[in-house]
Amino acid sequence: MATSEYAVPTDVAKKFKYEERLNNFDSVRLRTWRSTVSIRFVYENSGASSLDLEIPRLTFLPLTFPKLREYFSLRKDYNIALTTRNNEVVANHLPVGLLYDLYGELAVVPSNAFLQGFLRCQTLHDVSTSVWNAMKQNEFLRRYSIRRIQNLTPEQHERLETAFLNLTLSAYIEASQTLMNLQGLRYVPVRLYLTPTHAIQDLITPKIEGNASTISHVMKKLAPELSNLGPVGVDVIIHGIVIEWQIKLVDLLDEATYVDGWLYLTIKKSTLPTSTVTTVEDVRDSNLAQKDDTRPA
After folding, report:
1. pLDDT, tens digit (0-9, with 9 covering 90-100), for 157-201
2. Does the keyword field hold Ubl conjugation (predicted)?
3. Is 153 exposed, middle or buried (0-12, 13-18, 19+ CB in 10 A)?
4. Cβ proximity of 269 and 18 under 8 Å
5. Which of 69, 89, 120 is the last residue of a domain?
6. Would the N or C end of the chain have less CB density within 10 A of its end CB?
7. Counted domains in the chain
8. Rounded distance, CA 258 to CA 164, Å?
9. pTM score of the predicted model
10. 179-194 as b/e: b if 16+ CB within 10 A
């Protein structure tokens, strides 16, 4: 059996704990790109001791698989899947930082992960393909066109891919200037995670009734029951940071998107007395019962 533990990230989430509110996103992108998550892997069928790795928040677990295969003496064709101690399969194609935001409240999850079975995202090529597909989907939803991606030259395509795989921020910004330009923006695609396996996806217009759209608008549209509790009862988290509900979505697009251009927001119960927390859970269950599941492709 293999286990993996998410410890507290060594940068962003240590400085900005969940209960803190951050409304200044200056240099958040830089901090996010530099931040890591500590993961411990243990494989009981191997004589090797546990393996502790510092994994960047914006990268993907499959990029660690060659090291896991080497360390635990696994065959090169051995497909790796990771599950939590509750036997929930961890989605390899989701960024590590998002997985932390989903599982990391107790700072010990996922644990009891198994290096067995099959999960479709296994190799560097798989990760690259997954990112490009998500990027194309995001670009189409933003502008109803992927012409900007299609118009990338082979050299631009290669530079951008190298930048997001190696997490080189300066090269990523330079290579993705065309895609990051907000001119012609029709919608802001948002994916709101209520649990690791349940997400709601929708499009938010950059402005509503003449005013810039905010997190509050996202909550009202995607999770109205939770929105009624307000920021006092519900935390909206991105990159381990609890964000103010009045933050503008266009500001998040500038500073807080993942490498595929998506805004992945996570809902957590606020640090409040048990009675209120229970109410949040009840509302969340009610919300899930009324919404269709959105499972990322």
Report:
1. 999 999 999 988 888 888 888 887 878 899 999 999 988 878 999
2. yes
3. exposed
4. no
5. 120
6. C
7. 2
8. 10
9. 0.75
10. beeeeeeebbbbbbbb
